[in-house]
Amino acid sequence: MVSLPAAAARSSQKMARAAFQQQRRAVSDVAITRTGKPILRVQGGRSSLGGHTATVFGATGALGRYIVNRLARQGCTVVVPFREEMAKRHLKVSGDLGRVVFIEYDLRNTASIEESVRHSDVVYNLIGRNYPTKYVKTREHKTTRRRDDEATEDVHVEGTERIVEAVAKYDVDRYIHVSSYNADPTSSSEFFATKGRGEAVAREIFPETTIVRPAPMFGFEDNLLLRLAGVYNLFTSNNMRERYWPVHVIDVGKALEKMLYDDTTAGQTYELHGPKNYSTAEIAELVDREIYKKRRHINVPKAILKPAAELLNRVLWWPVLSGEDIEKEWIDQVVDETAKTFKDLGIEAGDISEFTYHYLQGFRSSAYYDLPPATEKERREDKQYLHVLDDQTSLLMSQAVRSITRIAASARLRAMALSAAAVYSAARTQQPPSAPAQAQVQAQAVSSLSAASSIAESSPAVSMAGLDAGAGRSGGDPDSYTPTALSRWSLLDHKLPVSDAVRSIHIYDFDNTLFKTPLPNSKLWNASTMGSLSSQDAFSTGGWWHDVRILSATGEGLEKEEPRAWEGWWNEHIVELARLSTQEPGSLSVLLTGRAERGFGDLVQRIAKSKGLKFDMITLKPAAGPSNEKFASTMAFKQAFLEAVMETYSSATEIRIYEDRPRHVEGFREFLQRYNERRQNRSQPAPLPAITGEVIPVTPIATTLDPVIEVAEVQHMVNCHNAAGGGRRGRLVLTKTVFFTGYLIKEVDSERLLGLLQIPPNMNRRDLKYHGNSIMISPRHCPPHILAKAGGIGTKMTWRVEAMGNLDNSLWAVKVRPATPNTTYHTAESVPLVVLAVCRGARPHDASRIRKWQPVAAEHVFEFETTVGEKAILRVESEHTASSQEYNNIGRDESDGQNSGGNMPPARSAGEEEEQPRQALPRRMDLHHPRAPEAELGAATTTTTRAAVGAAVSLDDAGPAQQPSQTQSIQRQQIVYDEE
Q1: Which member of 15, 328, 562, 675 has the lowest number of beta carbons within 10 Å of its beta carbon?
Q2: Mean pLDDT, residues 310-338
Q3: How does DSSP assign 462-493, residue by residue?
Q4: Of 884, 772, 908, 765, nearest to 828 (Cα)?
């Protein structure tokens, strides 16, 4: 080993020190994050250390590798949680040695998740699953069934909940949640629905969550271009007509990186989509053209393909096709206009047509190095090879092809239609013809179609309307649209007006438009349970909107409410409009709801009849339509019904629709626009002028059930679900999570306490979170020996306001004393206090650090009464998840008591003071986001009485049923349910 002389070594040290001083010019100072965590930001590079530590869940997926690579190149330390050793190998070289750290984790194991995020200042959640777990043999039941812990619900909702709770617990500065386009808790697709519920969970626990909704992505590992190019026989169910804005995966990676350095993106929602809208068929056309091959696309009816896909998913080792893929083929991408996009991040997204050569070159069997057309002009000229017919002839030919199955009764007519289709196909595949040749092709096609039309007119079994139905149902047989045929949609048996007698059509939605339908109480249930209750698939017997007992329990129940016409549960303004509609000459009034006709038909009629509302039609969603058609969603059912109404009463000049849901409002407006276009451009029957359509958005008035009854009804739903075998999610249980135990303050006294606040005038009030509702005893479920010191659940105590204090103008509290001297009490802090407000980034438990208290003026001193109780929330979850969480939290109560008694001061009497201030309590994020339930709630029988539930639960913050005109007496102050 060669050593340098001392002088040379000192010279090297000087050079290194000088180099370091020079490098400091690139440092943009020490940055302090909003949570107080310092980071050193330097100029990025492969060998630099940027100061950020990022955890990327889902890094081994198609998108994850791009964000890991970009962050590592900027000098960030990247923590990669992984499940399989072989899946993470390619990420090791993304950064310098030690910059990419791997931690093995399990999404069901809270400890492994917390270990992955505890050192980070930003967390990315890219986890997603687009197919359910395969059927496996379970040891405990010795049967083959789907494992619930790997279903989409557990990954997208419960998994998200565990990650976000860990983020909140360790004060992570940023959380970026990658969801999906069309994320909506009410979607018919389980993937989109669970993604929507996952967004709600993330925002509830961590309000500053950045939500990212990427469109279908294309790249080297995509499921779009590679699937279309690599499969010779591709099975579809919707003729590849679904439309979306495909986005380049590299552009999404750029956006995710920018969000790390831009704090203004916190709390925002981003819709990341490409610049152009495509159907899958159009993308398949690009793929075939690029690889010089023609892939075969076989269309199979959804009713056949979806069960077959689910069967394949059970049997095959790899998910070649899943039922969710089939369901998503019927859902077009809908972009939220209020969300931000690439443009807000300064990124210009690339179009998929610019990258097909780059990604598909390897699929060619010849002409490997032939480049695609270089200019846009050449692209336009090249597209002329694919389209040799004008739009009008193309429409006629497509109508002829679609009419083949409708006219199968006539062999001669079928031959004519096939001839037209053959001419059409030949015209699309030949080289670009000259103008005379193109005219000749068009003449041949029109001649074939005209011959088929003449035969159809003379055939008794076939109507010409069948040939003209290609653009939609509005071109159907006029004889099928009659008042008699329309009456099959209605529950009422009276005769409808004749077709020419109706000039205006008025449609009234039922739930939360006309009637104040109770919603699940967000103060009772956690976010994932709120989503499950609203979903039709969470319970084997149907959820909140599919259980007739829920609607029957409105107010004080069917028996008491029907005689008084559900007084106070109506939107009286809409009721008055409905009455005017029924009295207006020439109008057709309709009550329309997506509730199931089979379960709710009688109840909805009784509710409307009790109010004296006499509609021409009352229509609920049937199991099958009048023509035995099935409806994939409520919107599909309503649009089919509206089209039948407008075709039957084609002389009507206006239609008004009253609707409360914003998505349905937009859906109806788009539907009316498309319908009018078809109505004006059709050939048979004769075109009609556009009907004036107006969709009136109605602001819903939120109401809830009596909390005790609501808990009982949900318990009944759980019991019925378990009795039916557990369904897809397995057996469910109703569990309780306690946030804290304390002296709970009434709402009126809480408002008086908040009136003492003195907030600096220059502070943004939107950054404040107000409390003032309790004096802390224990930051979770209180052990019995500590609860006994406070007097036990339900004990009342009166307190007097003494002084005000604040901590660095970020937290405000009021110090209190028992109003009665020598009263024994117990609080979590050395000084009894009520936290009034906290600023963003501060934590309520920091109130113990307040040292300076300002006495309250004598005129502002008052006394208030409290009751010892618990602040808790309920959840419905699978038995497996509940038992796993209980196992992870064994001994938690004991550690809060005897084993960790040093954190709790002893019971004190009024007037006693400690000799020196206690140290601040250690951070207890479980107070805000507890990880596991503490106890189960509800009887195990199939019937749960109000008395049984009331004995176990008494509610305060959850409140009585929200009915404007009446109050109810409920026992209070044993267990208080609220959302955090």
Answers
A1: 15
A2: 80
A3: --GGGTTGGG-GGGS-GGG--HHHHGGG-S--
A4: 908
- DSSP secondary structure letter of residue 86: G
Q: H-type helices in 105-234, by residue range?
A: 110-117, 152-153, 159-169, 190-205, 225-230
Q: In what order do the strands lie in the sheet with 53-57?
A: 100-104, 77-82, 53-57, 122-125, 174-178, 210-214, 269-272
Q: Which two tokens stand for residue 798?
A: 């009166």
Q: Which helix (H) or strand (E) holds 270?
A: strand 269-272
What tokens does 46 get? 């492969």
Identify the bridge partners of residue 145 per DSSP, sorted by sequence position. 136
* Per-residue confidence (pLDDT) for residue 311, from 0 to 100: 80
| Euclidean distance between CA atoms 258 and 803, whole angstroms | 46
Percent of the chain with pLDDT over 70: 70
Residue whose pair of structure tokens reads 């969000």 in the numeric block: 259
CA distances from 240 to 283, 285, 293, 323, 328 (A): 9, 11, 18, 16, 11
Name the residue type at position 855.
Answer: P
Q: Which of 517, 523, 967, 963 is nearest to 707 (CA)?
A: 523
**What are the start-end ranges of the H helices in 296-362?**
302-315, 323-328, 356-360
Q: Which of 320-329, 464-473, 726-735, 750-759 has the lowest mean pLDDT?
A: 464-473
Q: Dihedral of CA 214/215/220/221: which sign? A: positive
When pLDDT is averaged across residues 829-845 and rounded to a whole number, the result is: 87
Q: Quick one: residue 99, left, alpha or beta (phi over 0 = left, psi -120 to 50 = alpha)?
A: alpha
User: Are the CB atoms for 799 and 817 separated by under 8 Å?
Assistant: yes
Contacts of 953 (CB under 8 A, 6+ apart): 707, 708, 711, 937, 974, 975, 977
Q: What is the band of 959 on the pLDDT scale with cuts at 50, 70, 90? A: low
768, containing H or E segment? strand 768-770
More confident residue, 683 or 814: 814
Spell out the SS3 assignment of 867-912.
EEEEEEEEEEEEHHHHHHHHHHCCCHHHHHCCCCHHHCCCCEECCC
Q: Using alpha carbons only, what angle is made at residue 406 by residues 400 and 410, rounded to the nearest 5 degrees?
A: 90
Q: Tell me how far apart the alpha carbons of residues 361 and 376 are, in angstroms, rounded to a whole number.
A: 20
Which residues lie closer than 8 Å to 496 by C-beta, 6 or more apart?
Answer: 483, 484, 486, 487, 490, 588, 616, 617
Residue 224 burial by Cβ neighbours in a 10 Å radius (0-12, 13-18, 19+): buried
Residue 499, pLDDT > 90, answer no
> Greater confidence, 475 or 248?
248
Mean per-residue pLDDT of the chain: 76
Helix segments in 459-571, DSSP class H: 483-486, 527-534, 548-552, 558-561
Provide the Cα torsion 467, 473, 474, 476; round to 10°: 40
Residues in the chain, overall count: 980
pLDDT at 446: 53
Q: Give exposure, 255-286, as e/b (b: 16+ Cβ within 10 Å).
A: bbbbbbeeeebbebbbbbbbeeebbbebbbbb
The widest CA-to-CA distance across the chain, in whole angstroms, is 110
Whether omega before 216 lies within 30 degrees of 0, making that bond cis, reads no
Residue 461 has pLDDT above 60, yes or no: no
Nearest Cα residue to 63 out of 252, 259, 212, 227:
252
DSSP code for 526: -
pLDDT at 135: 45
CA 587 to the chain's CA centroid: 39
Separation of alpha carbons 258 and 242, rounded Å: 31
Backbone CA torsion sign across 318, 323, 324, 326: positive
In sequence order, the 6+-apart residues with CB closer than 8 A to the CB of 30 are 38, 39, 40, 41
The residue among 119 and 95 whose pLDDT is bigger is 119
Give the DSSP letter string of 374-434.
SSHHHHHHHHTTT--S-HHHHHHHHHHHHTTGGGTT-HHHHHHHHHHHHHHHHHHHSPPPP
Q: Which amino acid is at 179?
A: S
